[in-house]
Amino acid sequence: MRTLILLLSLLLSINLSAQTDENDDVKSYKIALITERLDLSSKEAKLFYYIYNKHNERYENLKKQIWQPIKKDLKNIDNLSKKEAEALLENYRNYNLKRFEYREDYIKELLTVISAKKIMRLKKANYDFNRKLLKQYHSK
């Protein structure tokens, strides 16, 4: 049953294009880790990964639309005028507020599908995944 859930989760959450690169491997590993740690039923997995993917897409759009221009301006921070720096700070604060709003929406939506304990298991799985990824990056 666990294998079936894992397979279902992978199929639901991975873009099934012919490209197989390192990013796809990393995503696949993350999906497998999350699925295992949350011990999702097939019904939970279907609903969970719909929400999870929607949230990730929403967050990626936020990064592209708001964070990328901020990041670009940060590289040139020493050449910004006082007014430009104030506008940059305001954009940064708005970005952080949006991220918070998105996170709250995500948690509220997840609570309709999985328990608070599973949400915290998700947080731990993400933390463990990021730690492992960072460790592998530093070992190269």
How would you characterize the overall build of this protein?
- The protein has helices spanning 2-13, 22-38, 42-75, 82-110, 116-139.
- The longest helix is centred in the middle third of the chain and has 34 residues, at 42-75.
- It is built from five helices and no strands.
- With 140 residues, it is mainly alpha-helical.
- It is globular, with a radius of gyration of 18 Å.
- Helix 1 packs across helix 2 (22-38) and helix 1 (2-13) packs parallel to helix 3 (42-75).
- Helices cover 83% and strands 0% of the residues.
How would you sum up this structure in a few lines?
With 140 residues, the protein is mainly α. The chain has helices at residues 2-13, 22-38, 42-75, 82-110, 116-139.
List keywords for this structure.
about 140 residues; mainly alpha; about 85% helix; about 0% strand; globular
E-strand count: 0
Q: Sum up the overall morphology in one term.
A: globular
Query: What is the makeup of the main sheet?
Result: none
| Helical fraction | over 70%
Amount of beta strand? under 5%
DSSP helical segment count: 5
Task: Explain the layout of strands and helices.
Layout lengths: L1 H12 L8 H17 L3 H34 L6 H29 L5 H24 L1
Helix pairs in contact: 1-2, 1-3, 2-5, 3-4
